[in-house]
Amino acid sequence: KRTPKEVKATLKRLSKGSAALDNAYKDAIQRIEGQLAGDHARAKEVLSWIAYAQRPLTTAEICCALAVEHTQEELDPENVPDVDDLVSVCAGLVVIDDRSRIIRLVHYTAQDYLERIMEVWNPRAQKEIASTCLTYLSFDGFKSGTCSTDEEFEQRLQRHTFLDYAS
């Protein structure tokens, strides 16, 4: 809203309590669904990854995860998305912690809301996440097997951003 009168009128119409939060999140989901198809799909992926992640993801990890192509045997660096674009398509639902570089939902209530709607909004999310992790672990870079030293393992982790999470 652009004027104080418009802001006040809008605030009067807002509901209160948990219904207000649900309405705010529904509005954000509607904004996401109103985007171009590619942006809508990307936002669903990002929100699904964050909502279902076993631990918080760094920006590098989520970008790498989203770059995995199930038909390829290695990660194409030209397929890695820009993290600012990921934040942008998520309609204010995600933020990045500047110090830790963790991408997360804007508030814990967003997690609760997504958990309630995810089975309807993106029912294949968990399957896609598992498939992405398995595809990544099947890349040619890991065909040599396990690392023989801790140093070799640390180097592998440095070269393969998503390895720690995928494994």
From TrEMBL:
Residue ranges of every copy of the GPI inositol-deacylase winged helix domain listed in the record: 39-114
Membrane spanning residue stretches: none
Family annotation (Pfam families): WHD_GPIID
InterPro entries in the record: GPIID_WHD (IPR054471)
Protein name: Ankyrin repeat protein
Organism: Polyplosphaeria fusca
Lineage, top ranks: Eukaryota, Fungi, Dikarya, Ascomycota, Pezizomycotina
